[in-house]
Design a protein that fits this description.
The chain is mainly β. The protein has one helix at residues 69-78, and strands at residues 5-10, 13-19, 32-35, 47-51, 56-67.
């Protein structure tokens, strides 16, 4: 999405990964990897590692959260990667109304 927010797909699930700081060159990198102290990637302790063609860089992961399909779509729209669906409003329909008669207090009819 940008140099600080990523959508990662793993094991048929999507995750929003936010980095501690911007990862300049991430969009043009050859690939990314995770440097983890355990067998699982955890926010706050682990890092995203990428090669920006000049050197290898690692950036600490600030947060990770699993996304529902709706969450993922909302993030893609928020970061300008997807256009929101525009819902068509139904065409106006004719409604039969009652006849209106104005009341005039000065009229004695």
């Amino acid at each position: 999405m940008d140099e600080r927010n990523l959508i990662i797909e793993a094991a048929r699930r999507s995750y929003h990964l936010e980095l501690e700081r911007r990862a300049w060159g991430l969009n043009s990198s050859w690939g990314i990897a995770f440097d983890s102290t355990t067998s699982r990637v955890c926010a706050g302790f682990d890092e995203l590692v990428f090669d920006d063609r000049m050197h290898r860089e690692s950036i600490r992961i600030a947060s990770i959260r699993e996304l529902t399909p709706e969450d993922e779509e909302h993030l893609l729209i928020r970061f300008g990667k997807k256009e929101p669906e525009i819902k068509q409003t139904p065409p106006p329909q004719d409604v039969k109304g009652a006849d209106v008669k104005e009341l005039d207090p000065d009229d004695s009819d």
